[in-house]
Amino acid sequence: GQQLNQSPQSMFIQEGEDVSMNCTSSSIFNTWLWYKQDPGEGPVLLIALYKAGELTSNGRLTAQFGITRKDSFLNISASIPSDVGIYFCAGQLRTDKLIFGTGTRLQVFP
Amino acid sequence: GAVVSQHPSRVICKSGTSVKIECRSLDFQATTMFWYRQFPKQSLMLMATSNEGSKATYEQGVEKDKFLINHASLTLSTLTVTSAHPEDSSFYICSATSQNTGELFFGEGSRLTVL
Hints:
Chain A is mainly beta.
């Protein structure tokens, strides 16, 4: 199945550091979404982006919808231990069908 | 907030048996539900799109006779893994789109282990 390229694959950082991850696609999407998944649970929506160039924040999280509509990034500022998890980008096509990125596994050390 | 519930959350079965997983939207009606499969340390892969009252649309490479999907009402979709084999062991996740708001919500996932 189709997947989006997401990088980095994993990150090991110290509490308080900022984090940046991005997602690229060969296809254009109308919507970009960022999710966090904890072990054994379904993904939880963090941020949704609907317009090319849009920059949106949700607390310590900031995400942008690339101008070309083929990429997006997510930044987490001042990381804390509960930020640990797997982060997925997802591009949304028509009829709400989501294509997920390959995931970024984040580990935060105190 | 809106909730999508999956049942069972965990199931262990013997090879060759069939397993049914339910996906329910608890406080909204869902015209469309999606089924994903996630193998360990991998991403979510869309299996099929389920529309109420019509046949599901399967993604390329997903066997429709193996993974039976029924969306009999606006609040319930079921995925049946028929004649399960160990390679079918995975985390199955559904999502549902609210008929009223268009928002998309994910279930908590169902972990299937086939012995």
